[in-house]
Amino acid sequence: MDKPFAITLDPGSSLANRTGSWRTFRPVYVDRLPPCNAACPAGENIQGWLFHAEAGDYEKAWLTLVENNPLPAIMGRVCYHPCEGACNRGQLDESVGINAVERFLGDEANRRGWQFAPPLVSSSGKRVLIVGAGPAGLSCAYHLRRLGHQPVIMEAARHAGGMMRYGIPQYRLPRAVLDAEIARLIDFGIDIITSAKVEDVESTMREGGFSACFLGVGAHLAKRAYIPAGDAARILDALTLLHDVEAGEPPLLGRRVIVYGGGNTALDVARTAKRLGAEESIIVYRRTREKMPAHASEVEEALQEGVAFKWLATIKAADEGEVMIEKMRLDEKGFPQPTGELERLPADAVVLALGQESDLSLLDNVKDIEIINGVIQVDDNKMTGRAGIFAGGDVIGGEKTVTAAIGHGKRAARAIDAWLSGRTYAPPKKPEIATFERLNTWYYSDAPKTVRPTLDLVRRQSTFDEVVGGLTEDNALYEARRCLSCGNCFECDNCYGVCPDNAVIKLGPGQRFRFNYDYCKGCGLCAAECPCGAIVMVAEEI
Amino acid sequence: MFEQIEGSRAVAKAVALCRPEVVCAYPISPQTHIVEALAEMVSSGVLSPCEFINVESEFAALSVAIGASATGARSYTATASQGLLYMAEAVFNAAGLGLPIVMTVANRALGAPINIWNDHSDAMALRDAGWIQLFAEDNQEAVDLHIQAFRLGEELSLPVMVCMDGFILTHAVERVDLPTQAQVDAYLPPYSPRQVLDPAEPVSIGAMVGPEAFMEVKYLAHAKQMEALRLIPQYAEEFRAIFGRPSGGLAHAYRTEEASTIVVAMGSVMGTIKDVIDEMREAGHAIGALGITLFRPFPTAAIVAALRGARRVVVLEKSLAVGLGGILATNVRMALAALPIDVYTVIAGLGGRAITKRSLHALFRRAEKNDLDSLTFLDLDERLVARQLAREKERRKSGPVAENLLRDVGVIAARNY
Amino acid sequence: MHEQPIKFYQTGTFTVGNRLLPPEQRTVQSRIKRYNSLNSGHRACQGCGEALGARYCVDAAMEAANGRLIAANATGCLEVFSTPYPETSWQLPWIHSLFGNTAAVATGIAAALKVKRAKGERRHIRVIAQGGDGGTTDIGFACLSGMFERNDDVLYICYDNGGYMNTGVQRSSATPPAARTATTPSLEGALGNAFGQGKFLPEIALAHGIPFVATATVADLHDLEAKVRRAMEFHGARYLHVLVPCPLGWGFPSHETIKMARLAKESGIFPVFAAESGEVVASAPIRRKVPVEDYLRPQKRFAHLFSPTLNLAALARLQELADRNIRKYRLLPETL
Amino acid sequence: MFQVRIHGRGGQGVVTAAEMLALAAFDEGRYAQAFPSFGSERTGAPVVAFCRIDDKPIRVREPIVTPDALIIQDATLLHQVDCFGGLKPEGHILINTGKSLAELGLEEYLAAHPRERVLTLNATEIALRRLGRPLPNVPLLAGFAAMTGLIRLEAVEKAIAERFAGKVAAGNLAAAREAYSRILSSLERAHV
Question: I need a surface site. Which of C69, C136, C151, C306 has the fewest CB within 10 A?
Fold first, then answer.
């Protein structure tokens, strides 16, 4: 075209005008720590695996999940999901049903036979002794294996699983699920030797040629309380009861069962008692429902199943066919104080669920390990005072949950890996938490949480069938997609779209975006309209 | 083929023979008959394919033509008087964008007072808008100039205004030789735009140009218009070859040989002037005339060549630069500045005032005796004007001038015979 | 008219893109290879709503026209910031003629294309015209009305930022009541722009009975693109009126452009609806209703309503305008 | 050059009459120029149209100041407008009326005018009868042809055929022929 001078212009010519020079603030992409991830005791990258689940790529989601936690099907059942409590979506409508999706993924993996990705590094040849095949030990072994080491688990019980097998009733964790996830770990190359109680760690390590050791022996000894009891009084401890049920030898409890305690174990026992045929299953707890350490959902489910509660009560004495309880009141500090007011309750059996302790006799010959109140003292890297011996799970106290134990195992494995090569493990610095205030929630449409199906009450009172069902694929997808992806780009294209200067370059699926600072004028629209708060405006140096 | 035909219809037929693709129109006298005739031809399918757009104003009419022309369509519209002023902004714009629109201006006076009759005030008001301006002497020339206008405009990428006297030509039924389609096709190639809105080559037309290049843009527009001075005689020659008659060109001299007095004028009044010249020549006067066909660009060289032998030049024009005098005359004076020729400005025929042979005879005879002021208003009612001026001197609120004058004249409607 | 909301809750239908949607349901703006009809390097202010709205609309029209589109553009910010010699930001054939004749220029383009197509010289090409509110509701109104009345095959898009921003923020007939502009000052307790003046052009367009009239904002891309797409399904005159907040003229920080548009819509002060053949067929419902005060308060052009004293009377009148829109266009579920 | 001025009112076909006269002259191989008085011609307003006929091209553009002939389509104009202004001595005058010159009050004024140069024709009556509409222009044109001999009846008929179609053409044709013969009769009487 023989175009007129100046009046008619060619396309593309404005690119000569680098409007980036106008900028006083520049947008920068950041990744923040999502509150769910921050709250996960197992250190799962929840948002990371939800990202793939949202796309329906469940295998990739599962693979992402198991980078941190090898037991998603178990997690999806027994974890008390602090992640959901931290979830920002809870401030919008309801938190994302992370736990349900996790279970869905775990079950999918079992159903489809998905396997872990091969170890990240080639074999180091280093053998690590792991004492106890509970969640801490399994987790530690798994992560060590991923890091190229050879873990060997020695388990005192006949079957691996620890508290997951001997403490959690089947209606919460079907054994097929447990077995499947343990089997996958064995397939991954972890040696588990059962019925092999380690009596002396030092000698076992020496004899077995182990370069390091992780102690995950758990807390299997029931704490006792002194209760004056007649000879005929039938008093059991919760762990023994649960263990016997698991071993197929349920004890006779009678019609009326009193469970003493307020933790999750107390609830497990009370609900188990119902399933064993008790007409009455009553939990006696010295404080109120609000103060109960047991998880609220468990209390709710127990109530549904007809478990009764006696709040603000202690057992003063037990005798054949009855217990004497004393009513308590809370003082101004919230501590229960006796009132002197007594009451008799008929009871065929009393089950004590007052906590557990560890059997630490295997450390008798180990020097430098400090034990306070039955709890092994470890540093941040879970290493005891004896170099090369690490510990985690219930033995180190703190939060005694499966999830926490898995987290301990992972952290210990990383520390062991470092220690084996003469380093000290330093975890990567965590980014700032993606708080709710950083989100632009306009872009998330309203979508309430999906309620998981539950087993009908009749069956819940007579069988050990799993109470809480899983999600269908549709539901799981829906639930996954409720994730706000707090603090991390999820490729919603808002920045790409809202830039009036086309100064955002879209890099393609999974590649996110890049700013084109040649043209970015620094208006800040991208940051303001980023739903998940993954862009910050930073002052330009002038 | 000869036809006894109204000027407007003849022009419409000529335009149709040029195969315009978009015609837009807004009614204003005395242009209306042209677009009415084109509407008929489009409606009946005689002119097809062609889009005839009835717009809501002259401003829109030319704007539609701008859009159409920029899209590569041969575009035409027509207007007059107030209509031309109403589209003034677009008139400049079409030229600035270099769009070869052809527009007929059926010349008419400008208000106030509103007046529908002929003079050249409208075209003169927009003489510097960047359009080529051609003035037709009779309806034959009006027809011929339109055909040449498309050729010229499209070659130069410039819009062309073909001016023909309102009513006097547009409404006159007279003999016109209308060309055949084959002749027009032979003369006028299909429109090959210099720039066009096309997704295949997506240019931006109509950029904002700042001080760094605006002068250059304007200079180039001037240079391009000056190109017309070279092309027009050439196209007129080619026209004669195909159509068999001379038409167009820069200016026509009439009996200027040995003329000591030459009358310069534009448009239909040339016919009356020629009759007067003939009669005066017969009576022994050394007088001739020069009809100017091309007003923009101004054919200075051709005018100097035609007038250099005269002792005096009488510029008779149908427009008035209020506060100065003549417009055509000013241009002629500029052209003749270096020559020892007396130039007289005569303002005539404003608002349809008849220019009669009798008045011209008297005027030219006075001119020959150097008995003219440098600025003369032909057939001005001096008494009437004097009375109003006196009235205004007396009191400030003397009332509306036009009404006062009409009261003095003693008629309600103007008569022109 | 509005898109069937997509059952995707992470981002619903509100974000620009969505990696999880099937490609055909994704917005034009989310494509890696989108048209970018308005290219980088233009000279619009930071956070310019009009630049954003223009790219949204023209890209969507380009998509609908399969890239075969011509645009006519009125004088104004959009024209000035996009085509200062020697740089143009437009990547489609584009013409700027004058301030007030854009609709007519577009008519001419459409007419030319019709003839060229009849002659077999050109394939099918669509035409849009665009301008700001001044070039549309004021100086370009006659040509626009003419284009509507003739039902010329043009989609006219008005980018409404409520004033003559190019010339330094003067009042237009689209300036909202009580807004301060350079020609409706708020000095000495004056109210700013008067109540009861101005015009809402979409309703005037609607009165022409043309095939399609709609409003949209830059805050809801899905709605906007759906409207452009729908508009392009029709032939004849179509009108789209897009609210494009102006950081400079309204007085808010450049990163709040979309938020302002969102508040305008959510308060009801700017009704988002669509009409076909003269009848309103759909309204975009308010999702999180806010009092009109929430929309006004962040804008400096309304600052005189809040300080030094609260002008409750004016606020009440503005709220009534919003409420009237809500009733008239059924913007809330309970008004259905 | 022969110059004709036609007076009438808007709506009476004054301009058409001038144009048809020019057309008829053109059909006879002559040059002709017809033009109206250029105004806002509203129905009922006084209107003037002109026609020049010559054997060589006509260049002059001034209004016809000194006509060779007048056609007065509406006799009521006689006392409103200076219809006879500039008429050449012994110029033709054709008036559309059923009245006599005396009845029109023109007897005295035109006393010196040759009798065969001032004729009346009730063209409106003819038109009403032949055409069904009070349009006197065509019969007057035919009468003018008969009166002046400037153009032949055939040329008028041809112009009618070019200008009109169907019933209107047929009616006008009949009206023209009747008017033509009536004027011929009037001329005979005038010469007697």
Answer: C306
